[in-house]
Design goal:
GO molecular function: peptidase activity
Radius of gyration: 27 Å
Subunit structure: Binds to the N-terminal domain of the chaperone ClpA.
Keywords: Hydrolase, Protease
Order of helices and strands: HHEHHEHE
Family: Belongs to the ClpS family.
Largest sheet: 3 strands, antiparallel
InterPro entries: ClpS, ClpS_core, Ribosomal_bL12_C/ClpS-like
């Protein structure tokens, strides 16, 4: 039995000069990205917009403040670039939170 194990380990018994080694490369297709856009309105507070940008979109406080000012001054801002399913989930979270606080905050998704 020990001889059989030794024979199995011998590379010359299981390999020939005609063996071909192939390597398979896996290509992962990146998902299409979508832009999440937040719009200005006359009722939603600036503090609430900053809160949403920090809590839902994970922006740091400085970036959230810059985006909030862009929304306020320009009427809208792109706040995230995400795959569709994740973008849709974030928009639903924002809408639910805004409705809970009685704000008409509008957030939409557009192809990037």
């Amino acid at each position: 039995m020990i001889k059989a194990v030794q024979d199995f380990k011998s590379p010359s018994k299981h390999r020939s000069d005609t063996d071909v080694i192939t390597e398979t490369k896996i290509q992962v297709k990146q998902p299409k990205l979508y832009t999440v856009i937040m719009y200005n309105d006359n009722y939603t507070t600036m503090d609430f917009v900053v809160y949403v940008l920090v809590e839902i979109f994970q922006h740091n406080i400085d970036k959230a403040y810059q985006l909030m000012m862009q929304i306020h001054e320009l009427g809208q801002a792109a706040v995230a670039l995400l795959p569709y399913d994740l973008a849709e989930m974030k928009v639903d979270e924002v809408t639910a939170l805004a409705e809970q606080e009685s704000y008409p905050l509008l957030t939409t998704i557009e192809p990037a």
